[in-house]
Design brief:
Length: 238
């Protein structure tokens, strides 16, 4: 009996040690895996931060010189607007370099992510890039308070699907535009009365059905702001 009891006790001790050893190994493996995930996330975060430029907040006076240099380094001209209604792919015109560079800058700075289509006029235009959120306000403050001069002499007309930049809410005789906002023409065959007054700087190459869906959402009668936020995220294709 005593021998049997001691044998069983030894077995329990050995099994207990093995169990603790296994748990320790599992714990160590878990820590290592977490370490790898953490390092991977850090790499991704670091890469994302590196994609963003370090610059002084832009002003109307400094924006054009800055975008002149920025345009030389950043030649991307295809972007995708991602919404709950689907994706809208856009080609930005190389003939409007400052407006193309500005849109690429804002995309790389993640400005549009979380902004909304804040003005919808059925069978006319959908306008995006604004928001009443504090996060978007902070992004604007970080990037700068500036306006862009019009570039309307390149021959682009406001056909259906053209992407253009609205004038600033601030009254100005030269129709300087708000760099943070854009509109897409829904009207068929186009909104040609806008030619010469607004800068057409791109066109929809895929996803006009999505534009049409957004143009039909229910809006506030006074402000033309959708009753349900149509949020967006913008990414660069190439």
């Amino acid at each position: 009996m005593r021998y049997s009891f001691l044998s069983m006790l030894c077995i329990f001790i050995v099994l207990g040690c093995n169990d603790r050893s296994q748990k320790a190994n599992n714990s160590l493996e878990s820590v290592e895996n977490n370490k790898e995930v953490t390092e991977e996330n850090l790499v991704k975060e670091d890469k994302s931060e590196k994609e963003q430029e370090i610059f002084e907040p832009l002003t109307t006076q400094s924006a054009i010189p800055f975008l002149f240099e920025y345009e030389k380094k950043h030649k991307e001209r295809y972007v995708r607007i991602i919404t709950d209604y689907g994706n809208i792919d856009i080609e930005l015109f190389v003939e409007t370099p400052y407006h193309r560079a500005n849109f690429i800058l804002l995309t790389k700075e993640k400005y549009f992510d979380g902004s909304v289509f804040h003005r919808v006029v059925k069978n006319f235009v959908i306008q995006g890039g604004n928001s009443d959120s504090w996060a978007i306000h902070k992004k604007r403050h970080r990037i700068g308070q500036y306006l862009l001069p019009p570039d309307t002499k390149k021959g682009f007309k406001h056909h259906r699907g053209v992407v253009s930049m609205p004038s600033s809410d601030i009254e100005n005789p030269h129709k300087f535009a708000s760099p943070y906002e854009f509109f897409i023409v829904v009207q068929d065959p186009g909104a040609y009365h806008l030619d010469g007054g607004y800068t057409a700087f791109g066109k929809v190459i895929q996803g006009m059905d999505v534009v049409d869906k957004i143009s039909q959402v229910e809006t506030d009668d006074q402000s033309e702001w959708p009753k349900r936020d149509v949020k967006m995220k913008v990414e660069i294709l190439k």
